[in-house]
Design brief:
Blueprint (H helix, E strand, L loop, with lengths): L2 H5 L5 E2 L13 H7 L23 H12 L4 E5 L2 H13 L5 E5 L4 H10 L2 E5 L3 E2 L4 E2 L4 H9 L8 E7 L10 H10 L4 E4 L25 E5 H4 L7 E5 L6 H11 L6 H13 L3 H23 L4 E2 L6 E4 L8 H10 L2 E2 L2 E2 L4 E4 L7 H16 L16 E2 L5 H6 L2 E5 L30 H11 L9 E5 L2
Parallel strand pairs: 1-13, 3-4, 3-7, 7-8, 8-9
Antiparallel strand pairs: 2-10, 4-16, 5-6, 9-10, 11-12, 12-15, 14-15, 17-18
The structure holds pyridoxal-5'-phosphate.
Pyridoxal-5'-phosphate binds next to α4.
């Protein structure tokens, strides 16, 4: 089957990204241009349009309007996902050899940038729930403890990265955390890939957007948390701690010379759609409906885990002794496709279309799955084996560029990793270049690999030392 044939295949129920749900929730204006003669709209950087970095043209005008609307200094559309703009943001913040403080659950795009530029990550651990197998949101108390454990005189820390919300929807109160960073004169980049819509819904008891919590750079994935096409993203910039010219240069460094006019238009329309009163009330209604779906499923005794993002429905499969990967395969075979399988859970993303029929389908399949289950006691998430604060043993960039050889992961204890081991989704690295591979880490990955096919029999490149 060709890719194009697959793209038109029907799926009984898709609860994965992009959040427009196979076009159902795309902005009306985008649907209108897509209905025109196919390809008619695929234009180059004509002077009337320009690019995200040009001074004039429709893109510059739209970006200016939006940054004015949200009282930021600048905003830039991106066509290489949130990944691309996160990478630019990091390079604007740190030079090679400088340190950035970041939680252990950063996205792989952060690690790739560090490896590329030899920016040194100082990882801090996050509290973990063995009941869900997930990291908990970061509290102010925890964050203060992290800061106390860093020797700022010895290490040239130049910025902080925070991820909020997490893939599953857990969100912290960010303002106090950002305040702590700012008191230390450190700029903060918030990877809000999963939380763009928080910006438009202050009345719905959702987490406060990081943009309103004074983050210096905020990156949104528009296909994950608004109704943009895949690859669309936006970066918001404010404050005085990051130099604007550095940011512009960094965006330029990663930008294609031929950004897709369709994707750029999708960036614009997906944001403007949420500024349109009529569409906004439709989406807000969907969010309320998502909360109702959660409650209805609970009433049907389906074990769910609540997070701060109502659009994520997390099924706690461990309650019936089934891991999320097995459950995912079962649902997939039955036409219900989820977004994120993990050891103890399976996360569905409701997106922005009407999902009422999900309740009946999930209930039916859950009952069927229960029949297959053999309840195993003590199904607990294994705590990640990380220290409170740590940096890779040798520089991440040097390790990445060193001579390496390939060996089975499970035989690599005591070696230094030259590789990133990272299942996707969620795209959170388990080992990064320059880290020592110790027994605890291997045991932890081994437990995960019982469930995660990606990790079974995996190999790792280690340094020739
Ligand atoms: C927390 C987080 N940040 C960033 C990204 C990258 O987003 P994109 O796929 O838009 O590049 C992801 C993707 O999974 C993510 O989960």
């Amino acid at each position: 089957m060709s890719i194009s044939s697959f793209l038109t295949k029907k799926i009984l129920k898709s609860l994965f990204f992009p959040a427009h749900n196979r076009g159902k929730a795309l902005p009306k204006k985008l649907i209108k241009i897509l209905k025109k003669d196919p390809g008619f709209w695929d234009l180059p950087e004509l002077p009337e349009i320009g690019s995200p970095l040009s001074k004039d043209g429709l893109i510059a005008k739209s970006q200016k309007e939006l940054s004015k609307r949200f009282k930021t200094k600048r905003c830039f559309f991106g066509v290489n996902g949130a990944s691309g703009l996160i990478q630019s943001g990091i390079i604007a913040m740190a030079k090679p050899g400088e340190y950035i403080l970041m939680p252990r659950n950063v996205h792989i795009s952060v690690i790739k940038t560090c490896a590329m530029q030899n920016i040194i990550p100082i990882f801090f651990n996050i509290e973990f729930s063995s009941k869900t197998g997930h990291y908990k949101p970061i509290t102010k108390k925890w964050f203060k403890k992290i800061f106390k454990n860093i020797d700022f005189k010895k290490t040239k820390v130049v910025g902080v990265i925070l991820v909020n919300p997490y893939y599953q929807g857990y969100a912290a109160e960010l303002e106090p955390l950002i305040d702590i960073c700012h008191q230390n004169n450190l700029p903060v980049l918030v990877d809000e890939a999963h939380g763009a819509y928080f910006l438009f819904c202050e009345n719905l008891n959702l987490p406060k957007s990081s943009l309103k919590s004074n983050a210096d750079i905020v990156v949104h994935s528009l296909h994950k948390s608004l109704n943009g096409l895949t690859q669309t993203s936006v970066l918001w910039y404010q404050g005085d701690l990051i130099e604007e010219s550095n940011l512009i240069r960094s965006i330029n460094l990663f930008q294609t010379t031929s950004p897709s006019s369709l994707l750029l238009s999708s960036c614009e329309e997906s944001i403007k759609d949420w500024l349109n009163k009529k569409s906004l009330s439709k989406y807000q209604y969907r969010i309320l409906k998502a909360k109702a779906i959660f409650q209805k499923l609970l009433r049907k005794n389906i074990p769910l885990i609540k997070t701060q993002d109502p659009l994520k429905i997390i099924l706690n499969t461990s309650k019936i002794g089934i891991d999320g990967f097995t459950a995912d395969r079962f649902f997939y075979k039955n036409g219900l496709i989820a977004e994120l399988p993990e050891i103890m859970t399976l996360t569905f993303c409701l997106g922005f279309s009407d999902q009422r029929d999900f309740i009946i389908l999930l209930e039916k399949l859950w009952k069927k799955l229960q029949k297959h289950s053999k309840t195993i006691n003590n199904f607990k998430g294994l705590k990640p084996p990380f220290k409170l604060v740590e940096t890779p043993k040798i520089d991440i960039g040097s390790a990445w560029r060193s001579k390496t050889y390939k060996m089975p992961l499970y035989e690599s204890i005591g070696k230094i990793s030259g590789d990133i081991i990272c299942p996707y989704p969620p795209g959170i690295p388990l080992i990064v270049p320059g880290e020592i591979i110790d027994k605890d880490r291997i045991d932890w990955i081994r437990t995960q690999s019982l469930y995660n096919e990606y990790l079974v029999n995996s190999y790792i490149r280690v340094l020739n030392t």
